[in-house]
Design brief:
This protein is of the alpha/beta class and 491 residues long. It folds into two domains: 4-185, Rossmann fold; 188-407 and 435-474, Dihydrodipicolinate Reductase, domain 2 (2-Layer Sandwich). Helix content is 30%, strand content 16%. The chain is built from 15 helices and 17 strands. It has a nine-stranded mixed sheet. The protein has a six-stranded parallel sheet with strand order 5-4-3-6-7-8, sandwiched between helices. The longest helix has 22 residues, at 4-25. The radius of gyration is 23 Å and the shape is globular. 45% of the residues are buried.
Length: 491
């Protein structure tokens, strides 16, 4: 923002729009036939405050924050549904090579480098927002969008800190908007199978889950003895570096901070756990009612340092007994040399063909084990992959024995993107709304704190506090936001 006066006017305008959005939210007690009539809200002077909800026959006016790399993939997927109007595009590096395809395809769509300016100018034209930006930047965009009454689709993990996920979950409930975290497999076959097998007693008395991601990561091979962040480099002409940094503390620009490299650093990303945990552990977390752990223990950290993620990690998450289910340990393992012990009769783990390919390749490239999970219960052992990959019972002879006892699995009525759009129209409920996605992301936030500090954590599930380590407890909130970025924590 250019001046204190300009910032004050901008905040006042957002507050005015926000009040209109809350007025609309109060209508949710009405039937869908009334609620989803697109009734606009006007102020006393006749100016449009809020455009109203989306009727079943209308396209959804969507803004896209992040239009290159993964964000660009999501934009194209949403547009291919035929249910969306692309009304605004925002990217801090607008004009960089990774953004050109969508810029050229949608050349007449308004474009912005700063999401705040996009909302200030176009809030009245937007029904929903897709947020496909780096992990640390999800929070401010999502909070501002929800506070203005916009439905939000947010890539995983939901946020970089425990408190941010808490605030996002609370805001979603207060503002009454449709929310969906982008762990796409949560609308696929694995979701419906896991749900059905729990309900029919096939999956029961689970005491251990081993989740593994042993493919190459971007930071593998980096110098783990570093004592400082890399020296700054000239900022590309196309990049708004200050807006890219957002709420985070200031860093000089470096190429290893952008275009997916942000995932490597504690300050910006969530490492392998945040990247893949949401695709591997999502169904187990929801249908085994795990909630938050009471203990997080870094069993093995190879190449531990204060700046970027270890070369290999093993974390144990201890969950207490819940609703008739026994206490359970989730073990997370990543790293090329840190593969789990496989039970007898494991066989080969197939890769879900619907997994989006990583920017740097690396999946299914001759490595022994694809990303997945092993679930140990009292009577059965299950193996499963990532995303939509379904579970199998092992060993094979046990699978044959159980074949006639397995329930029929319902087919998914919609994929994850369509599920969100249909929920905006009132036809479905999202499968990964913030009340489900935020606690899952908070598990990963706790794991990352244990990784960074290399210390065992004791967590009070009721008070949501780390009780054995003062600094770790402070890290639930993370570092204070930069000046002029505090407002998003107050929405």
């Amino acid at each position: 923002m250019n001046s204190k006066k300009e910032k004050s006017r901008t905040i006042q305008r957002r507050d005015f729009i926000r009040k209109g959005a809350l007025t609309l939210g109060a209508l949710t007690i009405l039937p869908n036939s009334v609620l989803f009539a697109k009734k606009a809200i006007y102020d006393a002077r006749g100016s449009l405050v809020h455009p109203g909800s989306v009727t079943p026959g209308e396209k959804i006016n969507m803004a896209f924050c992040g239009i290159g790399n993964r964000g660009g993939d999501i934009l194209r997927t949403f547009m291919n549904t035929g249910m969306v109007n692309n009304v605004a595009m925002c990217d801090t590096d607008m004009g960089a090579p990774q953004t050109l395809e969508n810029m050229n395809t949608y050349s007449k769509v308004p474009k912005f480098k700063d999401f705040r300016k996009m909302f200030d100018k176009m809030a009245n034209d937007i029904d929903a927002v897709c947020i496909g930006t780096p992990d640390f930047s999800h929070f401010p965009i999502t909070m501002l969008a929800m506070s203005l009454g916009k439905h939000v689709y947010v890539e995983k993990p939901l946020s970089r800190t425990f408190q941010e996920s808490e605030l996002m979950m609370d805001a979603a409930a207060r503002y009454g908007v449709v929310t969906q975290m982008g762990n796409q497999g949560h609308s696929g076959a694995n979701y419906f199978q896991f749900k059905s097998w729990v309900e029919h007693g096939i999956i029961k008395d689970v005491t251990k889950v081993v989740a593994h991601m042993n493919n190459p990561r971007r930071w593998h091979g980096w110098d783990t003895s570093i004592t400082a962040f890399p020296k700054g480099q000239p900022v590309p002409d196309t990049l708004d570096w200050d807006t890219w940094l957002g709420t985070s503390q200031y860093h000089n620009y470096h190429k290893d901070f952008v275009n997916g490299q942000w995932r490597c650093w504690y300050d910006f990303g969530m490492g392998a756990l945040g990247d893949w945990g949401a695709h591997i552990l999502d169904s187990a977390h929801q249908f085994l009612d795990l909630g938050l752990p009471e203990e997080i223990d870094p069993i093995y950290l190879k190449g531990h340092n204060d700046f970027f993620y270890p070369q290999s990690t093993t974390l144990d998450f201890k969950f207490p007994a819940r609703k008739g289910m026994p206490a359970l340990t989730v073990t997370w393992q990543d790293g090329l040399d840190n593969q789990p012990v496989l039970p007898e009769g494991y066989g080969k783990l197939e890769l879900d063909p619907n997994i989006p390919p990583p920017l740097n390749g690396g999946l299914d490239s001759g490595f022994k084990l694809n990303p997945g999970k092993i679930i140990y219960s009292k009577d059965l052992i299950f193996k499963g992959g990532s995303h939509s990959s379904t579970l199998s019972i092992i060993p094979p002879d046990k699978a044959k024995e159980m074949a006639g006892k397995l329930p029929e699995i319902p087919e998914s009525p919609s994929d994850h993107f369509m599920n969100f759009l249909l929920a905006v129209k009132g036809n479905e409920k999202t499968r990964s709304p913030f009340e489900i996605a935020a606690p899952l992301s908070q598990v990963f936030c706790l794991g990352v704190i244990a990784q960074k500090l290399n210390v065992k954590l004791e967590f009070d599930r009721q008070r949501k506090k780390i009780v054995n380590h003062k600094l770790a407890n402070q890290m639930l909130k993370g570092t204070p936001p930069r000046k002029d970025w505090e407002e998003f924590y107050k929405l």
